[in-house]
Specification:
Chain lengths: ~425, ~325, ~700
């Protein structure tokens, strides 16, 4: 058993690494599109180039991957010669500062040829500015340069007289051309495994801020559906299996099949048309605004119903098949020939064996279910993780997509692990060997 | 060997009488297998639905006066009428033509570029390519075993552990939307499952004695894999492939709906629903309804057919 | 025995029972007009080949025929009242209480996820008003009664945690719990090894005298039925063809089918040199193809005349209890045979006797020295994922040395799991050897088959066990036989087809089989095609891995004869593996007895079957069911199970079960637990691996007296 769990963990690690690499390849395939997605279609090549440099997107993919995975601050530390620290502001934005030996936080900016340091104490938010030309260093070719933290969370290298043109995009204002920009950028990150999924390119906000709300919303949706589906589907499946070939069985299994094979978006559309447009009992779309999903149960009805129908059919059919098989097995024959009462045969001898297969299959099905959730969220405009993921993918928002993907993989492999444990628990043949 | 010859000739008359076995031709047997469809009502219903869509897909150009792209800007978003039997969409395109041309892309043609296409629908190609790749992988890793098997299977395990929708998102986002890329995505997504199935079949068949007989003859591994093993695995593979066609259509629709499928303006059921959805609450449900009905009937038809067949063939065993 | 108490109460009376199954092609009559009675304290044996309707009768009695089976005619009376036409509820109270059943495969018959104790106790609590505690206690007593070691502990275990023999004991205990009036056993020992089977059969005998239940014992094995039953019913194609006291039938079988069955199996001790096997031609017809208005056996009968094809014969009473369904039953011994096939078998016997003398050339074809074949297995520890854990091996073949002379046959016997098949795989190169030396045709062949040279490969070919998997279902018979011919280029390209037809004829199949697919052949026919395929490369050595054990008795003889004939005409050497000691004795010149990967005794066939014996050989011989109710065997039963090959006992592998070491060695045989036993050379070429000195082993009585 221990061996088994270790195996699963290794699998989980491999999977996560593979997926995260695959996600990086998206931008590799079309890096220009990211800039266009963020800045609109009409940017000039210079603007694009400058933007990519600032985002670190001009670096080779493996470098970006390493920055994303383990962060870049440990590398930048050396260049600046000071410790770097990440602070989160009250309104949720992330700022990077260098830590001066007296404990104060500093960043720099360039005004003309003057290096201006912006410093503040970690406790008080007020920043003071002073000229800090003493930090210029001299390169072999005689020019002066300086590594420091700029005001937009990069470690940058300024060179005196290089006079690089940069384009800064300021939300609200638009494009600002500035001269005297840095010649090299290292975007600062803590790295995914150190708990920092980065900043979303799409919203400019840290991914971790939004993604947990979205995850919560999805879990609410899937959880309600799951709790509704399981008992009903298992029960109906067992009934159908016990009465194999009867009218009830045909009705249940064909009905279940139909619901489980129709794509979720079609089911969703049918439900909207019937329940929202025609009967007008519940709203056909979900708009929660700031409130949590459970505060508007009426809006949850259709998304939950759609998911329920799909899963119901699937689980019902698996349970039925398993029940049919068990009822044909020799040990059930033995039980019948022992003259046991019908109900004892069913509950003592059949049910447990009949549940073993469905439980694992259902847990494996979580993979599938996630697809269903994405679709349902899109159909109903439900603000869940699935929709977040889709939007990030369409936008090629690496950080958002990576974080979402990692959560999905974690959930998928995690449920499989749970399934295996339940299975061992149900099946003494595995438990005692 | 000379006395071997004599042994044969002296006892040649003593061979066992052959029991009278009616030798049936290939077609008779095939027909016999096929005719069990008629024994099952569900299979008949399924067959009817599937044949209907195959028929309209093949003869699409003869079944409508419009092309799927023709816009009638004077009558957008109308309901069924004499000119437009199923109504029009938001650009005034005829829904019936878009529907049946959509079926064409699913079932009979694979558009490669603007004006180049090859026969075999997108869904069909998605299944076939995955089948070829998965079968080869499964055979090799099942037959050789050892570290080849270990590595292939761990990789495929990892792929199977990834939620399918995520896989689709990643692949389509990286490759961009086009019919060929849909086929590629379906291949990547479908391969692990097929490879696992074929591998487990191979592991089973490998232990059969005729394989041992081939090994004792010193046959090379390729002969054993492709000549001795593969033909005996075909039954379950074909059944699996049938179910996969249904699933491929499902996936195509889903991708289209998410905007990851065949790019507009070409008619695609999924993207038609996605577009039409925006106008439901505005009071014109037709553009979303029809393609939903289309995909539902086709997928349900395929599954009814497969189900009925399976049930009927298991009935008296 | 039965004759001694004629007045014992009749428990079950079956009259003119017919049972049919509904199928797609209409009703299939599986059982037709069967009548018999079972008395208290008496065992009725039902024998017949597979598909004869034995199980159908058993399920018919308890009315458990499944959704498509039904009783179409006849009466079943149980303790005086009719069982047919009862309601399900009434049947339920009788099943498991008054009538109990035991099935073939105990692993399948027990619920894998319910503790054995619960499965036992519920039989009591469901039929009686018995508190749970008492039921539990009674179950433990019953387990003790069936000689289960450590019953309290077994009650708490699951099915997979005890061995096959123990599982069957649990099933039997479960059946006996309510002291049933009728016990039906459907092939209860078929899935077990000989030594375990013998112990279970002993148990069944004991229980019969203790509980005085009426028993029905279904089997296809004449030896088993001779050991346990009092009355015998012989079934053929759904009909009962002969019934009577078991001794009478074995002494004077009156139906041609019964006679055929008995002539088709070798008695223990028979050898190819002094006796012949007579197969029954053809095969058991499928229910749909059975003759309608004729003797059902007519197509295969050696005595059939036109009269037989006019009407169905009825049972002819031969004595008070002995009856047979043949119009010539009374005079069958003196009837002329109407088929010349038997003559051919006799000719063959003549021809063979002459050739016996020629077979003495002493040229070695295959020799192995200290051959080892280990299978690596993964240990349970977490470290093994990273390849760091300690390596474990199943020692399937451990230090095997043997020598095979040209033109001779070496038989290998042993219980399942002793390494027979692994040995063969090692010899033929399907598994890599882990050590030792192997020479074939004076060439060292330690490597796997893929690295051997074609001319060596073609000289060693194999015949397999399972007729259903020996042929590739996707190709015609002709193609499959042609493949080795093409590969080894035994004949020029143009003549391949002729060669295939010639081979088909050599295995007594007509050229019409060329285009058949395997699924159109019967088991025996498939096996013959398998032999033809092995012959195609004209090998010097043919290895037969249980070639007949999956075949019906009547067909076995034909295949054995065919193999003998081939050996005579082609002069090939053979290695013949089987678990049936009678068959091996019949077929082989030399025999090796294997236990847990080692050969424990090896020598000329006749030497193995008489003292001095290796203690294991002795126990095996004592366990073989002999198809003769009057034969007497020593009663030596092995205790315990075959230990796991993953961790075989130290010293002599057999010491955990050896019945001889305590009585025949000083110090209770302590030495066997630590020291590997030495080889003891008996007569020429006969060796025994044992610590007991040869002189002592020689003093042991023979196992079988008649
Ligand atoms: N459920 C069923 N449906 C149709 N035919 C059946 C069914 N069960 C058995 N038969 C047929 O009935 C005949 C008798 O079968 P049965 O199992 O009683 O034979 P048996 O003597 O017990 O054979 P075995 O030695 O293999 O156990 C066979 O021809 C078999 O094919
Ligand atoms: S009645 Fe005829 S065919 Fe039947 S067993 Fe007797 S001799 Fe043979
Ligand atoms: S060596 Fe000892 S344990 Fe082994 S067979 Fe001989 S007496 Fe028995
Ligand atoms: Mg049977």
């Amino acid at each position: 058993m221990a061996k088994f769990i270790v195996r699963r963990f290794i699998l989980l690690l491999i999977t996560m690494i593979l997926v995260s690499i695959a996600v990086f390849m998206i931008t590799e395939a079309s890096p220009g599109n990211v800039a266009k997605n963020v800045l609109g279609a009409f940017i000039t090549p210079e603007q694009e180039k400058s933007f990519l440099a600032q985002m670190g997107l001009d670096k080779p993919a493996y470098v970006r991957y390493i920055y994303w995975l383990v962060g870049s601050d440990w590398l930048a530390d050396d260049k600046v010669g000071m410790k770097l620290r990440r602070v989160t502001t009250e309104d949720g934005f992330v700022e990077w500062w260098a830590v001066r030996s007296d404990g104060a936080l500093v960043r720099w900016k360039l005004e003309g040829d003057d290096l201006i340091a912006v410093a503040r104490l970690p406790s008080l938010g007020v920043a003071t500015e002073y000229t800090n030309n003493g930090r210029w260093q001299t390169q072999e070719d005689g020019t002066s340069f300086f590594w420091g933290v700029d005001t937009a969370n990069h470690v940058v290298k300024w060179e005196k007289g290089a006079d690089t043109e940069v384009w800064n995009f300021v939300i609200g204002t638009g494009w600002m051309k500035a001269s005297g920009g840095p010649v090299q950028y290292i975007p600062l990150k803590k790295g995914f495994i150190r708990g920092d999924p980065g900043v979303s390119l799409r919203t400019g906000r840290p991914v971790s801020k939004t993604i947990f709300t979205r995850l919560r919303n999805s879990v609410v949706l899937a959880g309600i559906a799951f709790v509704l589906v399981m008992p009903v589907a298992l029960l109906l499946g067992m009934i159908a299996g016990l009465k194999e070939g009867s009218l009830q069985d045909r009705f249940l299994s064909i009905g279940g099949m139909i619901f489980s094979v129709i794509p979720e978006f079609a089911t969703g559309i049918f439900l909207i048309l019937i329940m929202a447009v025609w009967l007008q009992i519940v709203p056909g779309a979900t708009v929660f605004g700031e409130s949590a999903p459970w505060q508007r149960p009426d809006m949850l009805v259709l998304p939950v119903l759609t998911l329920t129908l799909i899963e119901l059919g699937y689980i019902l059919r698996i349970t039925r098949a398993s029940m049919v098989e068990v009822m044909k097995s020799p040990y059930i024959r033995t039980a019948q020939l022992k003259g046991l009462p019908y109900w004892r045969i069913i509950f003592k001898h059949a049910v447990r064996n009949a549940l073993m297969a469905p439980i694992t299959v259902i847990m494996l099905h979580v993979n599938w279910l996630m697809g269903g959730i994405v679709i349902v969220e899109v159909v109903f405009g439900y603000p869940g993780l699935g929709k977040y993921l889709l939007d990030s993918a369409m936008f090629k928002d690496i950080n958002g997509l990576e974080a979402g993907a990692m959560i999905l993989v974690l959930l998928a492999v995690g449920t499989q692990l749970v399934a295996d444990i339940i299975y061992t628990f149900l099946n003494p043949r595995i438990r005692y060997t | 060997m000379t006395d071997g010859e004599s042994a044969v000739s002296t006892s040649g008359d003593a061979v066992d009488p052959i029991p009278d076995l009616r030798q049936r031709s290939f077609f008779q047997r095939w027909w016999e297998g096929f005719s069990i469809i008629f024994a099952s009502k569900t299979a008949m219903v399924g067959l009817f639905l599937v044949l209907f869509w195959i028929f309209v897909a093949i003869f699409a150009p003869f079944l409508t006066p419009y092309t799927p792209l023709e816009q009638d800007w004077k009558s957008p978003n109308i309901g069924p009428s004499a000119e437009h039997p199923l109504g029009t969409d938001e650009l005034g395109r005829d829904l019936w033509s878009r529907l049946i041309y959509g079926a064409r892309v699913v079932l009979v043609v694979l558009p490669i570029s603007e004006d180049l296409w090859i026969p075999g629908g997108t869904a069909i190609w998605g299944v076939i390519v995955a089948l070829v790749v998965g079968t080869a992988l499964g055979l090799i890793s099942g037959y050789y075993g050892g570290w080849i098997d270990e590595i292939t299977m761990r990789l495929l395990d990892a792929m199977m552990a990834v939620p399918i929708i995520l896989l689709y998102l990643i692949i389509m986002a990286a490759l961009g939307a086009s019919a060929i890329n849909v086929v590629i995505a379906m291949t990547i997504v479908g391969t692990p499952g097929i490879a696992r199935l074929v591998r487990s079949l191979t592991l089973d068949i490998r232990t059969r004695e005729y394989i041992r007989a081939a090994e004792t003859r010193g046959e090379n591994p390729w002969h054993i894999m492709f000549i001795e093993i593969l033909p005996n695995a075909r039954g379950p593979i074909i059944v699996d492939a049938m179910l996969r066609v249904g699933y491929a259509i499902f996936a195509m629709g889903t991708l289209g709906f998410l905007g990851l499928g065949i790019p507009p303006p070409s008619p695609d059921w999924g993207s038609m629903v996605a577009k039409g959805r925006e106008f439901i609450l505005a009071g014109s449900p037709w553009a979303a309804l029809w393609p939903s009905v289309a995909i539902a009937t086709l997928v349900v038809g395929l599954n009814l057919l497969a189900d009925g067949l399976r049930e009927e063939s298991m009935r008296y065993q | 025995m039965a004759e001694s108490d004629e007045r014992a109460e009749v428990v079950l009376d079956v009259e003119h029972l017919s049972i049919a199954y509904e199928t797609r092609k209409g009703d299939v009559e599986a059982v037709r007009d069967v009548s018999f009675t079972v008395r208290e304290g008496e065992t009725v044996g039902l024998v017949g080949e597979s598909g004869c309707g034995k199980s159908t009768i058993a399920f018919g009695i308890v009315n458990h025929l499944g959704p498509n089976g039904k009783i179409t005619d006849g009466q079943i009376r149980f303790q005086g009242s009719a069982l047919t036409g009862r309601s399900a509820a009434e049947l339920k109270t009788i099943r498991g209480d008054r009538i109990a059943m035991v099935f073939q495969d105990p692993m399948q018959a027990l619920n894998p996820s319910v503790r054995l104790g619960e499965q036992l106790a519920e039989v009591l609590t469901c039929h009686r008003e018995i508190p749970q505690k008492e039921a539990w206690k009674k179950s433990i007593q019953m387990l003790k009664r069936v000689n289960m070691p450590d019953p309290e502990n077994v009650m708490r275990r699951y099915t997979h945690q005890i061995s096959g023999g123990q599982q069957q004991r649990v099933v039997i205990a479960m059946a006996m719990l309510n002291n049933p009036a009728l016990l039906i056993m459907d092939e209860p020992t078929t899935a077990l090894d000989v030594t375990v089977e013998a112990a279970v059969l002993d148990l069944i005998e004991e229980l019969k005298s203790d509980f005085n239940a009426a028993n029905i014992f279904i089997t296809h094995n004449l030896g088993v039925v001779a050991r346990v039953s009092d009355q015998l019913c012989v079934m053929y194609a759904g009909q009962m063809v002969e019934k009577g006291p078991v001794v009478d039938i074995f002494k004077r079988p009156c139906h041609p089918y019964t006679r055929g069955l008995m002539a088709a199996v070798p008695k223990l001790g028979d050898s190819k040199l002094d006796s012949m096997l007579y197969p029954i031609r053809g095969r058991v017809p499928a229910p749909a193809d059975r003759p309608k208005n004729a003797c059902i056996f007519a197509p295969r009968c050696d005595y059939a005349t036109d009269r037989c094809r006019e009407a169905r014969p009825s049972m002819i009473q031969l004595s008070a209890e002995h009856a047979a369904r043949c119009i010539y039953a009374e005079e069958i011994e003196d009837r002329p045979r109407t088929n010349r096939r038997r003559r051919r078998v006799e000719q063959l016997a003549e021809a063979k006797k002459e050739e016996v003398k020629v077979q003495t050339a002493d040229e070695t074809i295959l020799e192995s020295e200290n051959l080892k074949l280990y299978y690596p297995t993964e240990s349970e520890s977490v470290m093994s994922i990273f390849g760091l854990g300690e390596k474990l091996y199943v020692k399937a073949v451990d230090d095997v040395s043997l020598r095979l002379a040209k033109g001779r046959t070496l038989g290998v016997v042993g219980e399942s799991g002793c390494g027979k098949s692994s040995l063969v795989k090692g010899l033929i190169g399907l598994e890599p050897l882990s050590g030792g030396k192997l020479e074939f045709l004076d060439v060292e062949v330690g490597e796997e088959v893929t690295h051997r040279s074609t001319h060596l490969i073609k000289e060693m070919q194999m015949v397999f066990q399972n007729p259903d998997s020996t042929l590739n279902p996707s190709y015609t018979v002709g193609k499959q036989i042609a493949r080795p011919i093409r590969r080894f280029k035994t004949v020029p390209k143009g003549q391949v087809k002729q060669e295939v037809v010639r081979l088909l004829k050599a295995v007594r199949l007509s050229a019409a089989y060329y285009d058949r697919l395997p699924r159109q052949l019967s088991g025996g026919e498939k096996q013959r095609v398998g032999i033809a395929r092995a012959l195609a490369s004209r090998p010097d050595l043919i290895i037969c891995d249980e070639p007949v054990s999956a075949l019906d008795v009547s067909v076995q003889a034909a295949v054995i004869n065919l193999l003998l004939e081939i050996q005579n005409t082609f002069g090939s050497s053979m290695i013949f593996i089987a678990h049936d000691l009678s068959v091996v004795r019949y077929f082989s010149d030399d025999i090796a007895v294997m236990y847990l990967g080692r050969i424990v005794e090896i020598g000329p066939a006749e030497k193995i079957y008489e003292p001095p014996y290796h203690p294991y050989t002795e126990a095996l011989l004592a366990a073989v069911p002999i198809a003769d109710p009057e034969a007497h065997q020593k009663e030596i039963r092995l205790s315990g199970n075959v230990p796991s090959a993953l961790n075989p006992p130290k010293g002599c592998h057999f010491h955990t079960r050896c019945p001889r070491r305590k009585e025949m060695l000083p110090d209770g045989g302590k030495i066997c637990e630590t020291v590997d036993p030495p080889w003891r050379q008996s007569a020429k070429g006969h060796r025994i691996l044992c610590h007991i000195p040869l002189e002592d082993l020689e003093k042991i009585d023979p196992v079988i007296h008649r």
